What does this fold into?
Amino acid sequence: MAIRRRPAPTAAPTKALVRRTRGRVREEAEFPVPPTVASMPPGYAAVLADLKQRIHAAQSRAALAVNRELIALYWHVGRTIVERQTKSGWGESVVERLAHALRQAFPDLAGFSPRNIWRMRAFYVAWSALQKKLPQPVAELPWGHNILLLEKLARVEDRLMNVFSPQFCHSRANGNLRFGLP
It folds into this structure.
């Protein structure tokens, strides 16, 4: 596939256009250069630092909210499969077909492979033994961390101990999961 490039401008930008901008110039857009930091009024640095902190905090809250919704969706998928297996006798072939249909319906989304759908079922079975609703700390874990807990620790008590342990929370924040086995 050939890369299509824009034709080079034939004439230099007009003086009027150059005077209105301090940055790059294209026919359809202007990119002004901002004033220097030294020319900003007192308190500018504090306002900038506060805005940056708020943006980072909002990004973190948004990521956590997205993660919670994704984990809740996976819980629901797992619960649906378990209920259908119990009531309607769904087998392995139905789950395989379900995975195929979901991937076709949502081609841009990852996470609906047969293996991952079986993991959603295992996720529901593992935590529903404890309570009917998804435990809140578990809902805040990324999906990969939940999978590691399920694969590494068989007992619910061991998984809970790791979810609530300070070492686990610290390692989770750093992206390195370590499991403290009793």
Summary: Residues 92 and 118 are 9 Å apart (CA to CA). The two ends are 57 Å apart (CA to CA). Confidence is low (pLDDT under 50) at residues 15-19.
